[in-house]
Amino acid sequence: MKVFKSAVLAFGMLLFAHGATYAQAQATPTQAAPTVHAPFSDLKGIGAGLVIVGAALGIGNLAKGAVDSMARQPEIAGNIQTAMIIAAALIEGVTFFALIIILLQVLFGG
User: Rounded to an integer, what distance in angstroms lies between the CA atom of residue 55 and that of residue 67?
Assistant: First the structure.
């Protein structure tokens, strides 16, 4: 729970800093109007990091549950391990797909 509170606080501070950055952009008489950015357009890189962190937490919790289950019932450890590997592969597949989409948006400005 402490990690969740820290993550929410960090995300709130990030949004506050993001808004303050664009609030300071001012036009001078010799300069054209400042460039208007779409809201949250600079947060795509942070999205890639969140995808990786989410996948790591998911696979970590999956492995923790599998090891606990194997400790309780060692006779079905093979079935639990097979299910765990399949689930971890699915989580990694979705993670790579999301990461590729975010990176394409960052590189090509989608």
Answer: 18
Could you state, in order of their start, the residue ranges of all structural domains in the chain? 2-108
Structure tokens at 95: 């993670």
The arrangement of secondary structure in 2-108, i.e. its CATH architecture, is: Up-down Bundle (1.20)
CA 59, 78, 60 angle in degrees (round to 5)?
Answer: 10
Alpha carbons 67 and 81: distance in angstroms, whole number: 9
**Whole-angstrom distance, CA of residue 87 vs CA of residue 65:** 12
Chain centre to alpha carbon of residue 5? 16
Q: How confident is the prediction along the chain (110 residues), in pLDDT tens digits per residue?
A: 677 777 777 767 666 666 555 555 555 556 655 565 666 666 777 777 888 888 999 999 999 999 999 999 999 999 999 999 999 999 999 999 988 888 888 788 75
Per DSSP, the three-state class of 71 is: helix
- pTM for the model stands at 0.59
